[in-house]
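Repro:
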Amino acid sequence: TLHLVLGNLAGEETVSHDSLCWATKTHWPADSPLGTKRFKAQKCISVVRNPIDVIASLCYLKNTLSMSLVTTEKPNEVDPMWWDGFVTKTAEAMSHSTLEMNRQVVPSIPTYYVRYEDLILEPLPALCELFCFLLEVPSIVGTVIEKRIQDYCVQGNQSATVYKLKRADNSNLSRNVDMYTPKQLEMLKMTMREYLYYFKYTDHPGG
C-alpha cells in the first residue's frame, strides 16, 4: 500500500494463499492502517525491543513516515504533553501485545522470541539459535546455513539492508533515555513490569 511504501515498509503484511510468500512481517496484534488479509502461519518469530529505545524510534517513524529520519527537534522538548501521552499509550500497547501473544499465538503455533538488541550486538548466536528453531534441529554446526550466517556477520548488516537506519551508534541502545522524565521512567517500570522481567531487560527481584 502507499502508506507502507512511504514508510519504507514495502512488502510488509504481504500474504499469499498460493505458497508464493514464505514469510510475512506484521505488527500484530496492532491493527494494520489500511487492513490486511487473514492468513495462517506454521511458525511465529516475535522480535521484541527495549521500551526506552523503541518508543522513541516509533515516535520518529510516526512524525517523519520514515525509518531513516529523525525530527530536527526532539518531540519531548517541542510538545512535552503530547510526548507524555504517547509514552504512556505505547507502553500500555506493548504490554497488551505481549499478553495477547502469549494468550493467542504461543498456544497455537511454535513461537520464538528474539530480542532486537541481541540481533544487533550478538547476531551470530542469536541467528544460529533462530535457525535451529526454524529448521527444528538441535544444532546447525557444520551446515551451509551456519556458514551463511557466519559470512553475514563478518560482512555486517549493511550488506543486506533493505532501508537505511537512523544515523546513530547502534551499540548504545539507551541513547534516547534523556527523552524521558524520571516520572515517565517510573511509569515504564510499573506498566511494563512483566514485559521487562519476561524478556530479561531487568532482573526479577526473586531471581
